[in-house]
Amino acid sequence: MTGVRAFAVEAVDIRKSYGELKAVDGVSFTVDEGEFFGILGPNGAGKTTTLEIVEGLREPDAGTVALLGESPWPRNLKLLPRVGVQLQASSFFEKLTAREQLETFGSLYGVSKSIVADMLELVGLLDKADVQENKLSGGQRQRLSIACALVHDPDVVFLDEPTAALDPQARRNLWDVLRAIQARGKTIVYTTHYLDEAEILCDRVAIMDRGRVLAMDSPAALVRGLDAPTRITLQPGALPAETARGIEGVDDVHEEDASMTISTRKPAVVLSALAERGALDGLQVRTATLEDVFLDLTGREYRA
Questions:
Q1: Could you tell me which PROSITE patterns the record lists for this protein (predicted)?
Q2: Rounded to an integer, what distance in angstroms lies between the CA atom of residue 195 and that of residue 84?
Q3: 91 to 84, 121, 134, 148, 221: CA distances (angstroms)
Q4: Which residues are CB-neighbours of 4 under 8 A, at least 6 positions away?
Q5: What are 236-265's pLDDT values in tens digits?
Q6: 75-127 pLDDT per residue, tens
Q7: Which numeric CATH code is attached to 9-218?
Q8: What is the mean pLDDT of the chain?
Q9: CATH architecture for the domain at 229-287
Q10: Pick from 186, 175, 161, 182: which is nearest to 40 by CA?
Q11: Domain residue spans of the chain
C-alpha cells in the first residue's frame, strides 16, 4: 500500500477576511520538500496574509494548514526549531554588530556561536561581522535578516518580499544567497511582486490577486500555456513596414519613432526572412514572460 505523500507545506481552502475585505479567499497549494515556491502578485493581493497563516502567525477564518506535518496554529512549539521566518519589516537589537545579532538570535535556539561565521559567509557578510547593524546598507541588512532566519538551520524558510526596495545590484546579490540556501536542501516559500525574479528563482509559482490563486505551475509551463507571440524589435530604417507585413508568419507590425516591433508565433520563419533581407543588425527578440501571464490573467496593468 502506497503511503500518503508528505509535503513541507499543505494549505487547503484557507480564508481570512477583515470586515468586507476578503484578504485570502479560498487559497490552496502544496510545497514539496526542497522546493523553491513563490507566491506572486501586486500589493494587496493577499500574499503576506497567506504567508502569515501558513507560518502560524495569523489564525485563518476557515481552511487548514499543515506545516511539516503539523498544524502551525495555535502556536506550535514543535515547529519553532524547524522553521525560519524573514518578515517584510526586520527589527534588530540596537547597537549590536552583525556577528552579535546572529549570536543573539542563535542563543534563542541553543545554537553554538561557531555557526555564526558560516551564516555570515553564506550571506556574504563575513567582512561586515563587526559592523553595527545600523551602519549596513539596505541590501546588507536584508541579507543579515535572512541569516537570522537561517541561523538555527531550519527545514523550511519563509521570506516575505526579501528583495523589496533593493537596487538592481543588491537584488542580484541576494539571488545568489537564495540559490545557496536551496542548494543546502532547504524548502523556500517566498512572496514577491518582482515577476522577473520569480521566473529565475522559483521551481513553481502561485499567482495571486484579490485573495485568490489565479494560476499555479512552473514559470516555464505558465509561459508556454499563454501561447503569446514573440516580439522582434528592429532598428529604425532596418526594413520598410510594408515589407515586414508581407513576411510569412508576421501577425502584426507596430511602428514607433525609435523602432519597429514585429509580433509572430513563428519566430524561426520570420528571423530567417529578416536575415535574407539583411535586417538583423541591432535586432532584439522578446519572448513571453511571467509578467505577460499575469497581465493576461488579470486583464489590467501590473500593480507595483
A1: ABC_TRANSPORTER_1, ABC_TRANSPORTER_2
A2: 23
A3: 15, 21, 11, 11, 38
A4: none
A5: 888 888 999 999 999 999 988 788 899 998
A6: 899 999 999 998 876 778 888 999 999 999 999 888 888 889 988 998 889 99
A7: 3.40.50.300
A8: 89
A9: 2-Layer Sandwich (3.30)
A10: 161
A11: 9-218, 229-287
